[in-house]
Model the fold of this input.
Amino acid sequence: MATHSEATHNEICAGVPAELKTRFQQEWVVYAVRVPLAEVATARRMLSPRHVLRLARKRSVVAPSPNHTASDQVRIILLRYLAGQQPREQFLPQESNFSTDFQSRDVAALVHMLNEERSGTRSSEANGAVTREWKESMFTTYPLKLDYDDFGHDDVLRQLLPASIPVPKAFEATGHVLHLNLRDVHHPYKYLIGQVLREKIPGIRVVVNKAANVGGVFRTFEMEVLAAVPGCSLETCVRENGCVFHVDMSRVYWNSRLETEHRRVIDAIRTLHGSTQTGLDADPRDVSRIDERKQMIFADGSEPLRDSSKLPLVTPPVAAGPNAVPHTAASMRLSSGQKPVLVADAFAGIGPFAVPLAKHGFIVYANDINPDAVEYLDRNIRENRIPPGRCTTCCMDARAFLKKLLHSDRLPIQHIIMNLPAEAIHFLDALVGSIAPANPLPYIYCYCFAHGENAYEWIVDQMNEVFDAALQRNSGKAAEEVNPTRHAGTDAAPIDRHSKRPRVDSFQLDPDRDQLRVRCVRHVAPEKYMYCVEFRLPESLARPNGSESA
Done:
């Protein structure tokens, strides 16, 4: 939820005060060279880019002053070298390439340096057409006026904040919304910081500050609006992996830093199925049968299902990238033939995995417990023109979602994505004994958080304990039953991250047999990392009552 009080409305919408902007009105004197209009391009080549002034919002080639007698035929090329002494109380934009090398020297020294450099490079010119020497009479000085618009947000905040307050460096842009995570020392200046960033960063119309950590069942967080264009909402639109996503971060979870990870998993799944999964290979009769089955599975009235789309939009598969799963496609490819490949996304959010996969021809079942997320997911399905029946959405607990999908021997799910790092490992028990004998063993992509140097061992231990506890329950060795409607995931066996497995015969994943891979995704906080665990569900876990596949 985004909040702000009526008392701060003016602070949010007013912008940076004019009296503060006047601090940035300055005038500097730089060296420049006068050249005929027809020779500007030649002169710029002679000077090379490293000598010409580079300032984002200023031109390096300007016309002389209006009272110049030949203003239409002469141009002035501004150089990066300051002339004269630096005025007090003035400062230069950091993004510029100003130099003080010739502030205490006359123009003759500058001309000598340029000619020396010119003589050293003349022999390398192919035709020797550019041979002129620089002369002092060609050089002049130029008064360069700067104002608020010529400084970047970093420069402005460095001047407006007290010297003891660091300039905020980390922020994330989602469409036109900029998301900050300010420290306590920034709070007295939060509205000023928000206004500067809104005015200085192109495309930004709303700036918000994270008021609490991501939490709760819906994985959202409270945010405070610091700056906004009047009438502009928090709903925005982003493009990722060839798809358009509508999102309101106050209602749903979204993290733009995960775009590369989304693409990696999508490409890995596509690569496993080679050229067979283009979206045009699926037999319409198979899609029709699958549609009937999913209606039968979820037609018990417990949760609504939604199908949304307009027109098909399909692209061919891509080759494996450098981050693809390091198993050969031949060894991992599922024998789907011409049949559609089914993917389950248990924590789908607004669809960063589900929508691109459906767009590429996979049959996707996308679930999220947050009704707002499912609302945006449906909208994104329509926006990206996913064909009818290609992506089915529902709003329910992930454990119940997985059990309902996998307990049907008519829905051969081949890939299961579980992107809820704080809890996903606890939902793995829903996979135990859930795969029908005739169905393939699915590949799992399970995300989690871990700390320290022994993250791999700790993650695998947690997974083994969850699987082992589920096997005990399924075999009658444990008294408690799993509550299929609880979202928090704590109905799995309690886990102590420092504990050791108490039984020598407890279940163990086999890295080779199960194609187990633990991959670091990103650094979240000091000593805290996000990981993706990829593996193929073992036969001993997958089949009910230990039955073998057909």
